[in-house]
UniProtKB/TrEMBL annotation:
This is (S)-3-amino-2-methylpropionate transaminase. It comes from Brevibacillus fluminis. It is an enzyme of class 2 (transferase). InterPro entries: Aminotrans_3, Aminotrans_3_PPA_site, Class-III_PLP-dep_AT, PyrdxlP-dep_Trfase, PyrdxlP-dep_Trfase_major, PyrdxlP-dep_Trfase_small. One of its GO terms (molecular function) is identical protein binding. Keywords: Aminotransferase, Pyridoxal phosphate, Transferase. Pfam families: Aminotran_3 (PF00202). It catalyses: 4-aminobutanoate + 2-oxoglutarate = succinate semialdehyde + L-glutamate; (S)-3-amino-2-methylpropanoate + 2-oxoglutarate = 2-methyl-3-oxopropanoate + L-glutamate. Its cofactor is pyridoxal 5'-phosphate. It comes from the Bacteria. Belongs to the class-III pyridoxal-phosphate-dependent aminotransferase family. Pathway: Amino-acid degradation; 4-aminobutanoate degradation. Its EC number is 2.6.1.19, 2.6.1.22.
Length: 413
């Protein structure tokens, strides 16, 4: 695994953690977009403790238990459209693999289409869909068959000066060419996309692109799968990123922030689709374990009650405006983008190439000043902010100031 620091960490609370030597750090990584409520939120801790006292594990093949049923009902309530039925897994990658199985079983079709730059996880199925770095696939070929990739509509990377509309048209054209030259649409089970690309660079897909994908998939009987493992639960300033485009996918895959750090993934779809999945066609010993489900219910309750989705939208706008003023003028800053608290700052070097070294220098300088931030992007050229949605104003300001100073220092060299 990659380690982003060599720190030995003892405890964490809110947007901070402390090392074994009691050094305090601000955490703008949030367990890689997991701790939407910050670390050890009291209501989540209480729910975990209470659940652990009454039921730790059975397995959902026993029958039913309250926390899993209540969580499934809650997810049906808060997810877009009429998605009303849930299969629980342990992680994002595992849920993606489940979604692949569901799509193939329900359609009887073999092929899958994913996007260059995307990241879906580390199981063999999810690794096959992933195309954000060849190093994730090196040594593991041959991977799963039947997977095709087309470019994500990421204007800045697709061509100098390309507009969002041009990027949308280009990616749609490549999809059409794929249908004509390589795989007939009648053979395609699903198109799988992150509606807001995470690891690949913190890049939102244009609304028009997602809407067009919805029309194309409907026309050909292809299932549309949204991987909202990183975007779900308020991160983008909507409960789910799908809402920005007003598009309901056929399958919504969730994990990360769902349970504030307890392992849990979810495959959400309409009942009629889930019912096409044969009994015993999938399963999991731990998936949907009672403690993870209780933690998820508690964290969703806090997100809704404290209107943290709305807060994420407002704070995100303020941060982007602040960055435009404070760092937007540096030639090394290629783009400041994002919605809600999914904000990326992409860097370029003096020759216009990806600013990989700049990002490494910024992260190192920030860490020296006790702020943990990390990067993303195919070349590691983007700084990404993964703030708790409930971050205290004071922590936010302090962290942003450290980051701006680190950027100013790196950009000046
Ligand atoms: C969009 C997306 N999908 C899937 C995954 C895989 O999730 P997990 O690490 O829980 O397997 C990730 C993890 O970073 C992700 O960002």
């Amino acid at each position: 695994m990659t380690r982003i620091t060599n720190l030995v960490i003892k405890r964490a609370h809110g947007a901070k953690f402390w090392t074994v030597d009691d050094e305090e750090y601000l955490d703008f990584v949030s367990g890689v977009a997991v701790n939407a409520l910050g670390h050890t939120h009291p209501e989540v801790v209480e729910a975990i403790q209470e659940q652990a006292g009454s039921l730790i594990h059975l397995g959902l093949n026993y029958g039913y238990y309250e926390s899993a049923v209540n969580l499934a009902e809650k997810l049906a309530e808060i997810t877009p459209g009429e998605l009303d039925t849930v299969f629980f897994s342990n992680s994002g990658a595992e849920a993606i693999d489940g979604a692949i199985k569901l799509a193939r079983a329900a359609t009887g079709r073999p092929a899958l289409i994913a996007f260059e730059g995307s990241f879906h996880g580390r199981t063999i199925g999810a690794t096959t869909l992933t195309a954000s770095s060849a190093k994730y696939k090196k040594h593991y070929e041959p991977l799963m068959g039947g997977v095709h990739h087309i470019p994500y509509p990421y204007a800045l990377q697709l061509g100098a000066g390309m507009s969002e509309q041009e990027a949308t048209a280009y990616s749609l054209d490549r999809l059409q060419k794929l249908f004509e030259l390589q795989v007939d649409p009648s053979q395609v089970a699903a198109i799988i996309i992150e509606p807001f690309m995470g690891e690949g660079g913190y890049v939102p897909a244009p609304v028009a692109f997602l809407q067009e994908l919805r029309k194309i998939t409907e026309k050909h009987g292809i299932l549309l799968v949204f991987d909202e493992v990183q975007t779900g639960f308020g991160r983008t300033g909507k409960m789910f990123a799908a809402e920005h485009a007003g598009v309901t996918p056929d399958i919504l895959v969730l994990a990360k922030a769902i349970a504030s750090g307890m392992p849990l993934g979810a495959i959400v779809a309409k009942r009629e689709l889930h019912e096409k999945w044969p009994v015993a066609g999938h399963g999991s010993t731990f998936g949907g374990n009672p403690i993870s489900c209780a933690a998820a219910l508690a964290s969703i309750n806090v997100i809704v009650r404290e209107q943290l989705v709305e807060r994420a939208a407002a704070l995100g706008q303020q941060i982007v405006e602040r960055f435009n003023r404070s760092i937007g003028h540096f030639p090394a800053v290629a783009q400041i983008r994002g919605t809600g608290l999914m904000i990326g700052v992409e860097f370029k070097d003096q020759d216009g190439n990806p600013g990989t070294k700049l990002v490494a220098a910024i992260r190192e300088e920030a860490l020296k000043n006790k702020l943990l931030v990390t990067g993303c992007g195919v070349y590691g050229q983007t700084i990404r902010l993964m703030l708790p949605l409930n971050i205290a104003e004071e922590d936010l300001d302090q962290g942003l100031t450290i980051l701006e100073q680190a950027i100013a220092k790196a950009a000046a060299n």
